[in-house]
Fold this sequence. Notes:
Blueprint: H1 6-22, H2 25-36, H3 42-49, H4 55-86, H5 109-123, E1 127-128, E2 134-136, H6 137-140, E3 160-162, E4 165-167, H7 173-181, E5 186-195, E6 207-218, H8 222-236, E7 243-250, E8 253-262, E9 279-288, H9 290-295, E10 303-310, H10 312-320, H11 327-330, H12 333-336
Parallel strand pairs: 1-5
Antiparallel strand pairs: 2-4, 3-4, 5-6, 6-10, 7-8, 8-9, 9-10
Amino acid sequence: MATVSPDDQFEAVERTLVELREAGAPRLAELKVELLGRKQGLLTQILRSLSTLEPEERRAVGQRANQLKVEIDAVIGQREQELRAGESSGEDVDPTMPGRRSWRGAIHPVTAVIDDVCEIFRELGFSRVTGPEVETDAYNFTKLNIPLDHPAADMHDTFYLSPGILLRTHTSPVQARTMEQHKPPIRIVVPGRVYRRDPFDASHAPVFSQIEGLAVDEGITFVEFKAALDYFAKHFFSADTEVRFRPSFFPFTEPSAEVDVQCQMCRGSGCATCHRTGFLEIMGAGMVHPAVLENCGIDPERYSGYAFGMGPERIAMLRYGIPDIRMLFQNDMRFLRQFVE
Ligand code: PHE
């Protein structure tokens, strides 16, 4: 023993330490004994020989040995952890096994349409707001210039919850709520669900969505109204999409229009979807009726505006070629999965 110098002993410890960092589990167990074994352990021997050294050398060797002990413990601890972590991905892995599919959600086509529409109107300065689905007949009808004996207010179309309380039949009541609460300038889009006593067939549902739009300010003209809806259609569909305004009637707008866009299926040449007309109706719209402004506390002499209401389900059907509106409500995974990006 005495013939082996401490330097040689330290060198042997250091060599073992290098091997330790790469050792597999069986070799690691052997190396632990080689280094720290109570009888023959390399480091144990160094420590044991300290008493035979001169005081000065004893201090230097003792210090170095202690540092190495700390390092050895750390390396062993780390290596054991690495080996444990590697256990399950080691040789017992079968790389031919099919992977586990991770399920990714998708944006529902109606939600995608709503978000895209609101984003385009955001560019034109419109904020996105919402309103209640349970309404009073005042907001749903009378403030909007719809007398309660008007066909739209008829029990036939409306789900009444109790006298005077109903499920809103359109998003237009949010127009009245907003005008009552905010002074012009007002520019809002209002996505939300509406309810009607309609059959549930390929083109009707008793619950569906609408996006209401309302702009009220000084000096708003029919020109701004047309320009805004033209901008929307060209940005939502495509830059060469033609827009057509047909005269129509709504009690809360005057003049009123039905807005058509060029059929996206046949690009205007006429097909079954557009009934050979080349155009498809996407919304009702018009200049806000002065009586509505007045009902909501806005001076019709000073302010004017336009409003529109569109159906995101219809637009989603056009955009994605969906033949039956019921597909949008059934939540059949085979249908929904097609919208995973
Ligand atoms: N509220 C109307 C409807 O549900 C649509 C509309 C909104 C028309 C705003 C004109 C202005 O049919």
